[in-house]
């Protein structure tokens, strides 16, 4: 186990070369990104990729994102068009994943047999340093066992894999805490397959046209286009009851002690004064960036308390981040 309770600086020094060697030998390591931790391997090595699927327990029908340092390396493995290049220049490095046609060098198991590949350039300095040192594209799904909550710290990666945990490079708590936006550029009208930190309006402003209507995207068979995005996902073990808004939660959530209630901000604490349920908060003041950053770690903590049910509200959708958070909450509560 490479994760040690030392200062982050010494941890990085101790781990870095071993991580690079492990990757270059066809192994798997967990790396920090600005969104969530990823389980990385050489993207162009099908045996290494198979190890990632095995370790994660992920169905082979669910493709991986390939991480690159820049557009130049993306062009070695895929065919970006003008719109794609525009988006890369604007949002990379950062939390935007683009689905575009792949080149033959990309093994079939990375893309689950699809003719497209998901590409992204992460901004976390440690991940970038690893990309630079290996000089090769890295496939990396989120570093959690299949369908569970994504990890936003090195400790969470270690806790979720236990004895089977690969080497973890500790880059601290993820700054964003929610997975990248996935944008499909292979259909006539580009479509968001997974809402994330880069919002619909952010993208529309850059490309100068409207993206596909989200309800149409779902109707048109999202599960076929993006195999990993349809089913229940990001779910804690404890059943999760989602309320349409905070008002309805405060009115209807059971107050008995076998329940746990999570509220978006501390401002609602006084309304729960007389409640015997355990209460947790996602943020100090309801800022959606802060809620996003704390979302998964709070769900994990809530899970550990082994209550009968976790009750929580959808957020008011004031920006792209709250839309992405609601997407994750919906899928986490899906049975
Ligand atoms: O922020 C992130 O995107 C993190 C960090 C580690 O980069 N990664 C991540 O990967 O969330 P993963 O594997 O947990 O989610 C990637 C999603 C999956 O739901 C998958 O179905 C979709 O992207 N995807 C990958 N390749 C695709 C493709 N060729 N076509 C459509 N969807 C694709
Ligand atoms: Mg994932």
Give a written overview of the molecule.
- This protein is of the alpha/beta class.
- The chain has two domains: about 1-225, DHBP synthase; about 240-335, Rossmann fold (3-Layer(aba) Sandwich).
- It is built from 13 helices and twelve strands.
- The chain has helices spanning about 10-25, 45-55, 70-75, 80-90, 110, 125-135, 155-160, 200-205, 215-220, 220-225, 245-250, 290-305, 320-335; strands at about 30, 40, 65, 95-100, 115-120, 140, 180-185, 190-195, 240-245, 260-265, 280-285, 310-315.
- The strands form two sheets. An eight-stranded mixed β-sheet has the order 1-2-6-3-5-4-7-8, with helices on both faces. A four-stranded parallel β-sheet has the order 9-12-10-11.
- Strand 1 and strand 2 (about 40) form a beta hairpin.
- It starts with 7 loop residues before the first helix and ends with a helix.
- Threonylcarbamoyladenylate binds near residues 35, 62, 64, 182 and 225.
Features:
single chain; 335 residues; alpha/beta; DHBP synthase; Rossmann fold; 2 domains; 8-stranded mixed β-sheet; 4-stranded parallel β-sheet; 12 strands; 16% strand; binds threonylcarbamoyladenylate; binds magnesium ion
């Amino acid at each position: 186990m490479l994760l040690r309770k030392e200062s982050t600086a010494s941890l990085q020094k101790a781990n870095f070369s071993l991580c690079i060697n492990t990757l270059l030998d066809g192994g798997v390591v967990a790396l920090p990104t600005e969104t969530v931790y990823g389980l990385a391997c050489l993207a162009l090595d099908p045996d290494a990729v198979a190890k990632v699927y095995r370790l994660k327990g992920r169905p082979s029908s669910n493709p991986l994102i390939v991480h690159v340092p820049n557009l130049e390396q993306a062009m070695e493995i895929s065919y970006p068009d003008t719109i794609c290049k525009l988006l890369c220049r604007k949002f990379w490095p950062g939390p935007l994943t683009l689905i575009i046609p792949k080149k033959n060098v990309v093994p079939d198991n990375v893309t689950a047999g699809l003719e497209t590949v998901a590409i992204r350039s992460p901004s976390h300095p440690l991940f970038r340093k690893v990309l630079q040192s290996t000089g090769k594209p890295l496939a990396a799904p989120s570093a959690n066992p299949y369908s569970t909550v994504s990890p936003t710290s090195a400790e969470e990666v270690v806790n979720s894999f236990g004895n089977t945990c690969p080497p973890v490079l500790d880059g601290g708590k993820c700054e964003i805490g929610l997975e990248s936006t996935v944008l499909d550029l292979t259909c006539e009208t580009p479509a968001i397959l997974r809402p994330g930190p880069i919002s619909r309006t952010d993208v529309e402003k850059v490309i100068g046209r409207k993206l596909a209507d989200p309800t149409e995207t779902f109707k048109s068979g999202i599960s076929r286009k993006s195999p990993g995005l349809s089913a229940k996902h990001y779910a804690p073990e404890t059943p999760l009851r989602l309320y349409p808004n905070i008002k309805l939660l405060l009115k209807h959530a059971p107050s008995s002690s076998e329940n746990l209630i999570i509220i978006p901000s501390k401002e609602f604490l006084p309304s729960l004064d007389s409640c015997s349920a355990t209460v947790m908060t996602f943020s100090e003041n309801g800022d959606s960036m802060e809620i996003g950053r704390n979302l998964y770690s709070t769900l994990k903590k809530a899970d550990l308390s082994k209550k009968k049910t976790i009750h929580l509200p959808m957020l008011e959708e004031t920006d792209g981040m709250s839309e992405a958070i609601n997407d994750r909450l919906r899928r986490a509560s899906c049975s």
